Amino acid sequence: MRSPIHPEAFPFTVIFAFGSYIFNYLGKSFPFLGRLFKSIGYMFSILALFTLYFFRDPERVIPQDENAIVSPADGTVLKIDDVPNAPFFNGPAKRVAIFLSIFNVHINRSPINGKIVYRNYNPGKFFPANLDKASEDNEQNSIGITDGDFKVLVRQIAGIIARRIICWNNPGDALEKGERFGLIRFGSRTELYMPPGTTIEVKPGQKVQGGSTVIARRKK
User: Fold this and answer.
1) Looking at CB atoms within 10 Å, which of 46, 126, 127, 209 has the fewest?
2) Mean pLDDT per segment of 10 residues, for the chain of length 220 residues?
C-alpha cells in the first residue's frame, strides 16, 4: 500500500520534530526563558506538520479516454497561449501554465501514455512562479513524452520558495497516463506544451488536479 506522504517529507519532518523536542526541553530546563523556548518549539512542531501536509501524495482516478490529456500538476491555470517556437516541438505549440501554491500537492504526473524521449535541465533564477518571466528565467526541468503519434512537453519550473526540482525518470523510460514522475519543493509552476491542433478543455483561473483533470483532448 502506497504511503499518503511522499518519502521526500521525512528528512525535513525529522529535523523539525527534533527542533521542537530540543526547544521544549530547553523551555523546561531554563524556566526564565521557558516561554520563549516553548514558543520556538511550537513553531518547529507546526513546521513538521506542514511538511507532512505539503508532501502529501494522494491517489487519483485517471481518465481512461485515450484522447484525454490530463493535468501534470495540481494548482490554478495561470494562462493558455500559443508559443511560436516551443522546445522539443521545434515549432508552434499550445501552452497551459499552472501555478502551484505552497498549499497544493506538488507531485508531477504524466499527461499521456508514452515514452520519455527528451529531457533538458536549465539552472536559473527564482522569480515568483506566477510571473511570466519565470517561464524563461527560472530554474527548470523539461521532459518530452511521445506515444509515437502524439507528443507533449512538461516543464517543471522552480519558484521564489522552491529550491529543488526532482525528476525520477529519464529518456527511454515509459510512463502511463497519470503516473508520477517528479515533484517541485515549496511553491512552483508547471507548464504543459501540446501540438497546435489540441482542443483545450480548461480556462484561466480554473483549479486542476494532477492526473485526474482533463486539460485537453487530442484530435481523433
Assistant:
1) 46
2) 82 92 88 87 94 91 95 96 94 96 92 97 70 70 95 89 81 97 84 96 97 92
